[in-house]
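LOG
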Amino acid sequence: MNNNITPFYDPLLSYEDNYQQGPFGDFAYLPKSSIVMPHSSRFLNFDVNLPFGIPAGPLLNAKYVKAALGYGFDLCVYKTVRTRAHKSHPLPNVLSIHPKGKLSAEVDTVLADHDFTFPISITNSFGVPSFDPDVWQPDMADAVLAAKSGQHVIGSFQGTPGNEATIEQDYANAAKLVDETGAPILEANLSCPNEGVNKLLCFDFTKVERVAHAIKNAVPNKPLFLKLAYFAHDDAILPLLKKLDGVIEGYSTINTLSAKPVDAQDQPALSSTRPVGGICGDAIRWAGLDMVARLARLRAELIHHFTIIGVGGVSSLEHYQAFRHAGADAVMSATGAMWNPQLAFEIKRALLE
């Protein structure tokens, strides 16, 4: 990877400035040519050129999605939206982190700064911002229409505590709003801080079951993925898989691992009010692979038929193939793609050799 590549999301700018001014680097211009795969793959019941793309997070609006599609990312998740506007955390939102060895599933303390070196790992802290539906709905619809043959845009959404009497009602309302954009696949974000035990909704199985049923009742005719965090052993995730058998179509995993980013003076690098941040990139690949392998193994043992999207630290053909070998039906890259917008092209070229 070229260390001089400009990321398509500028970590020195605010979320709002990135939304208005971005994308940057290669994504600011559409490529002059594309790469045609000789055979398409199947993802759910869709033909896809290559089951590789960008997960929820970096693709802030239709401009970003169109750029990603143009650069050969064939499964693109439009950034998570809500039923009501929700502001982003202030800067800093993205910092480079430098773990000593493999980041653990515990809340490690890691050095964080603006020295974005490779292999790249970052902390991100945004608070899942969203504009009002009257802004994001027409924009998401525009993004959906930009998908060419063998490409698909996935609509990610999240319920917000307090928007409705119950969190599941707000998830259902968000799903209906996303459905109205024409997005062919839905993804419910359950792995950012929310109203569940241990701060992540995906660990509150009773609530997840209610949320999943509410979404499917609201939008019964489109595939639904649930975005999950890392579960450290089989018994931790098995009850959820059993509860949701036949209810949802798949799982996207993982989102991030949590850590405490600190500066050179050992002070919270994000802010005193945000001592913990989500970690993405190279440092969490082991966890993404472990989670995909766990889901694939349990899928076979339970004779279930859910689809798995593998995410976490993907920045090369070898990483893509490792996730596929572990059992992922599709693979996505956020940090790797942000710092290497040519990543999908590179993987496709290598597969064609």
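LOG (cont.) second protein
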Amino acid sequence: MSKPLLSLCMPTNGVVEWVFPVLESIYKQGCDNSLFEVVITDNGNNIEFKRLIKKYVSEHDNILYAETKVLPFHNEIESYKRASGELIKFVNHRTLLIDGTLQILIDFIDRHKEKKPIIYYSNGVLMLERKENMFKTFDEFVCNLSYWSSWSTGMTIWKSDFEKLPVNISNFNELFPHMDVLFAEKERENYIIDNRKIFNELPVNGISKAKYDLFYAFCVEYLAIILKLLLNGDIKTSTFLTIKNDNLIFISRLYLNFVIRKKPCSYDLSSLKNSIKVFYSRKELFFAVFKLSLNKIKRKG
């Protein structure tokens, strides 16, 4: 069997309620199975999921399923290792592909397989004028992604670029390993952010999304990655400050939802007091939360 053009990589810990609807959203698009493959890496212990997925795999000739023991977020990179397509697209195990998405991805490969620009699918979350936005420098790419670079769901990488990375991923960031992949190529001629909507998220409905330290992740670890880019001369000071300021707005939303409104979540929220003061101050956070709350009141009015 010839290699597919596209690898859809879905790392999972085995949530039946999410994975199978996502798989159905892929196969109902009617795309030629020879053009793509689905790679599923499972680091969970859900016996029922393992039984069901093995049956599903037996009914499709372009799915690769593997059980792994890697760290939770490193499972994403583990799925990339098993991909054989020219282009690797990360598929979050709780995001349904919108009809036509597979064709969008395959058309992108056909148009760009010679120059292989860096590509990220932002799913309409950015205030960008065009569907496909081209940037000439790594700095512009990082600046326009802003804090959404922390979001692995938009991840896409050419197989040839992934093969340049270290085989041993133990030094990749434990919380944001995709950023070691996304930021690996800093001298490419073209960087693209495709801002069209290509998927919809499934509702959580009480299922635990993650149990990591939320405020440490986004107040400290994420910004430390961006700071390293600045210190290495890969991005400008203005880019770092833009991301830092945008990230504070994101953190204020987390604080409003999970600390003030006490919305249910599985995150560890205990490190807020210590984490916020690494790159920000409590005063900056409270002012950002106040502005966010005020804007919500104005919109309702």
